[in-house]
Design goal:
Layout (H helix, E strand, L loop, with lengths): L1 H22 L6 H26 L1 H6 L1 H16 L5 H28 L5 H32 L4 H20 L11 H74 L3 H17 L8 H16 L3 E7 L7 H20 L7 E8 L3 E9 L23 H12 L3 E7 L2 E9 L1 H4 L2
Parallel strand pairs: 1-2
Antiparallel strand pairs: 2-3, 3-5, 4-5
Helix pairs in contact: 1-2, 1-5, 1-6, 2-4, 5-6, 5-7, 6-8, 7-8, 8-9, 8-10, 8-11, 10-11, 11-12
Length: 429
């Protein structure tokens, strides 16, 4: 019946890997990650099975930390996108849950299955897919959200899971396997029972962090909407004042022309142009987009940043709230990035264009040295919550709501954000 034992071991090793990969984030492309993982973990599994055949389960169980856990830890640490607490917590979480299943099925088979490995094999055959389904269905999405949004606290969680993993491994195998220490079995089962409670506490704390992050996002979006509404009001007041002033301008100009004072009329027109230019910047005939662009133009002026704002949009019927929020988020993130640079390095350009097919937005700004963003992925948010993190996720939600596409990447010291929204979505509004 040792064939069932060996198959259950291979099955366990494979599903430890599956559970880990559900939560793990590699720094390499998916194809390269899969190939390297299959080669390394396949070799490691064969090595451990060979050890079982030669030295037996008890001996290999006592040294599995050296033959299995440590090599896989080093390999995945090298492959991981996360190098600190996030990685170690993810690794310990997958390993602890998997090892808990392994130990539980060992005990059940020893006391109820007569060490024929049938109960061990069936138990692992059922429990591993069940845990993976639960992880994929309920844990994977909020866990990824947590990885992207929370930078602090991972070290504490990783330490708690690592200690529990070591406690479980040591008490299960030293000085001999726990099935040979029946007097210690009640205490060991208590340790086993503490595992679900421990992880329930940790995951609850994580969920609270996600709720806090979502609330912060909602508050930020409300502030952005408030700013857009205030800018709209200010711009409308400015437009009304300009319309009122134009009446007096027109009357004066008509009087000068009627009196034959052509030279004075020309001087008066030049004065009007200078006065208009000295007011709030005019970037578009669309009052909402113009208000948003003008607000951030002032902000860039305060930063003493070089800027170029090119908006080729008239009075087209656009979804103003979403478009202004996309523009505001993009320029706000760029301003945050520029604020961290030396004054001479602050530079940004904005290009918006509306044609018959698409609305195009490109925001390009200088970024910090060493910053790298792979095309097709959102950049990470740093510990202080600055940079291109939170706002871009909000932008992406707005863009997707309008059936558009968004891409960001770094290029020769610049951060580039591209947005393309089909005009068909405007027709439905």
């Amino acid at each position: 019946m040792t064939i069932l034992r060996d198959l259950s071991i291979l099955w366990s090793l494979f599903h430890i890997l599956v559970l880990f990969m559900l939560l793990y984030r590699s720094r390499y492309p998916k194809r390269s990650t899969v190939i390297l993982t299959v080669v390394f973990m396949g070799s490691l599994a064969l090595f451990n099975v060979a050890g079982l055949v030669r030295y037996g389960t008890e001996f290999m169980g006592q040294i599995f930390l050296l033959t299995c856990t440590l090599p896989s830890l080093l390999f995945f640490w090298f492959m991981s996108k996360d190098k600190k607490g996030q990685f170690f917590f993810t690794f310990c979480l997958a390993d602890t849950v998997s090892y808990w299943i392994i130990v539980l099925t060992n005990i059940l088979d020893f006391y109820l299955g007569g060490q024929r490995y049938i109960l061990m094999f069936v138990g692992r055959l059922v429990l591993f897919p069940l845990v993976e389904w639960a992880a994929y269905r309920y844990l994977r999405k909020p866990y990824r959200e947590l990885q992207e949004s929370v930078a602090k606290g991972w070290g504490l969680f990783a330490g708690m899971t690592a200690l529990y993993y070591l406690l479980l491994a040591v008490t299960a195998n030293f000085p001999v396997v726990v099935t040979k220490r029946p007097q210690e079995l009640p205490a060991f089962l208590l340790i086993m029972a503490l595992m679900p409670m421990t992880y329930a506490t940790i995951l609850t704390a994580m969920y609270r962090q996600i709720l806090l992050f979502r609330r912060q996002q909602s508050e930020r979006m409300l502030r952005e909407q408030k700013n857009v509404l205030e800018m709209r009001l200010e711009n409308q007041q400015c437009i009304r004042k300009m319309k009122h002033d134009m009446k007096s301008y027109t009357a004066t100009l008509s009087g000068l022309l009627a009196a034959g004072e052509t030279k004075k009329a020309e001087d008066y027109l030049r004065g009007m142009e200078q006065e208009t230019d000295s007011g709030w910047g005019q970037f578009s005939r669309n009052p909402y987009i113009n208000a948003t662009a003008a607000y951030y133009d002032r902000k860039l002026e305060e930063l003493h940043a070089k800027r170029r704002i090119d908006i080729r949009i008239g009075e087209e019927a656009l979804p103003h709230m979403e478009i202004c929020r996309i523009l505001a988020n993009g320029m706000e993130n760029a301003c945050d990035e520029l604020g961290a640079l030396a004054q001479e390095d602050r530079e940004m350009s904005v290009h918006m264009q509306y044609n018959r097919e698409h609305l195009l937005i490109r925001i390009r700004n200088r970024c910090q040295k060493g910053r790298y963003v792979e095309q097709g992925k959102l950049p990470e948010t740093d510990k202080e919550g600055q940079g291109h993190g939170y706002g871009l996720r909000s932008m992406q939600e707005d863009v997707e709501r309008l059936s558009g596409n968004m891409a960001c990447y770094t290029d020769n010291g610049y951060f580039v954000l591209d947005v393309m929204i089909p005009c068909s979505c405007f027709m439905a509004i």
